[in-house]
Every structure is written in C-alpha cells, then in structure tokens.
C-alpha cells in the first residue's frame, strides 16, 4: 500500500473511525474501556504512524475526528476520555509536523447522533441486565431508567445535517490556510464548551450537575 502511494503521491489522511456508548464509570467492564481506547485512540495513532513518512514527503494534511464532548461529559465519559486523548495527541503532532510542512486539523462536531448513528438509543433494561452485582447493589432500575431517558433525549435533539461536518473535513483537506480546530456545533453547545474551557471547574461541575438533575 505504501509503495503504491509513493509512486502516485499522498496528500491527506482522515482519521474518522469511532464508537460510542453510554454508561457511568462503574457500569462498564474493563474490556469495554480497552476496546474504546483501541478503536477511538490507538486506531487513529496506528494509521497516522503508518502514513507519516508519506505525509512528510508530500507535505500533506492529517485530519482527526474529535468532538465537543472532549470538554465535558453527560453520560458517556468513556467516549469523552478517548476524544480528550486524541486532542492532546493532535496538539503534540501539530507542533512537531510544522517543520515538515504537514498540517494537522481537528474536527469537533457537536451532537450529530441522528445523522451519524454513532450512538443508538440506549435501553435501560439492557444496561441493568449487564450490571455487576456490586453495581446493582448501589443503583436501582429507576435510576438507570432516568439516566437512559435523559441520554436518549439528548440524542434525539442532535442535528440531522451531517454534511456540515463533511464540509469542515473538506475545508481542512483543501483550504490554503486550514484551521487547527473546526468546531461544528450549535450555539448552546459552543457556549457549554466556552464555560468548560474558561471557567473554574466548580462552575463547570455546577452547570453539568444542574443539567443532569433535569
């Protein structure tokens, strides 16, 4: 594969692979954490390392799919974890690649669940059936149902216009002066990111706790 691209040139790499799930920290087994790290984080790193020689040679572009969920979490901390890690990997890579003329861009979509189908509606019954006995002793079915309803309501509010994210990816690949980050999100989502990034953690926690209480 690399020998083929060496003869025809190689311009851009888009790391788009990702999976999502719902669940509080103790609800998910270690195997799930390992799977998410392998797909969402290490998968992008493996692909990047494989094509790095060609990207340096042709002064290409590398585009990573992150998410505004890298800044906060509302029930899918495992997904947030992998996206926050990808952001830091990109920050290091972007600085290191400057001397080679390679540009690194991050796409940060808001909630596009209805258009991407990355996260299907969650089932409280299924979540409860998979909990360990230790977790069942701490939580109850009513709580799990409330959390599932809350998360499903968020999913249903997502945008169906996935072309907005695709447009950002295309710009990152083709623009003479691409942005380091493309945040493609609704105004209220951008406002939440602003609060999380600039306000003290206690403020962020209060805002998110209030949202979760509703």
From TrEMBL:
InterPro entries: NAD(P)-bd_dom_sf (IPR036291), SDR_fam (IPR002347). The chain crosses the membrane at residues 62-79, 191-212. Keywords: Membrane, Transmembrane, Transmembrane helix. Gene3D superfamilies: NAD(P)-binding Rossmann-like Domain. Pfam families: adh_short (PF00106). Belongs to the short-chain dehydrogenases/reductases (SDR) family. PANTHER family: D-BETA-HYDROXYBUTYRATE DEHYDROGENASE, MITOCHONDRIAL (PTHR43313:SF43), SHORT-CHAIN DEHYDROGENASE/REDUCTASE FAMILY 9C (PTHR43313). This is BDH protein. It comes from Mohoua ochrocephala.
């Amino acid at each position: 594969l690399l020998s083929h691209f060496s003869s025809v040139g190689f311009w851009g790499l888009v790391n788009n692979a990702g999976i999502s799930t719902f669940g509080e920290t103790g609800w998910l087994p270690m195997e799930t954490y390992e799977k998410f790290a392998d797909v969402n984080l290490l998968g992008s790193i493996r692909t990047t390392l494989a094509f790095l020689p060609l990207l340096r040679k042709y002064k290409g572009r590398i585009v990573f799919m992150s998410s505004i969920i890298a800044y906060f979490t509302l029930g899918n901390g495992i997904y947030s974890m992998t996206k926050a890690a990808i952001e830091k990997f990109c920050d290091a890579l972007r600085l290191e690649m400057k001397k080679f003329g390679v540009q690194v861009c991050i796409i940060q979509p808001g909630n596009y669940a209805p258009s991407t189908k990355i996260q299907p509606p969650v089932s409280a019954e299924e979540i409860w059936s998979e909990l360990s006995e230790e977790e069942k002793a701490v939580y109850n079915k009513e709580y799990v149902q409330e959390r599932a309803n809350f998360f499903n309501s968020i999913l249903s509010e997502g945008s169906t216009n996935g072309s907005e994210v695709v447009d950002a990816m295309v710009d990152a690949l083709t623009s003479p002066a691409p942005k380091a980050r493309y945040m493609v999100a609704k105004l209220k989502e951008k406002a939440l990111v602003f609060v999380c990034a600039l306000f003290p953690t206690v403020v962020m926690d209060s805002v998110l706790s209030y949202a979760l209480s509703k």
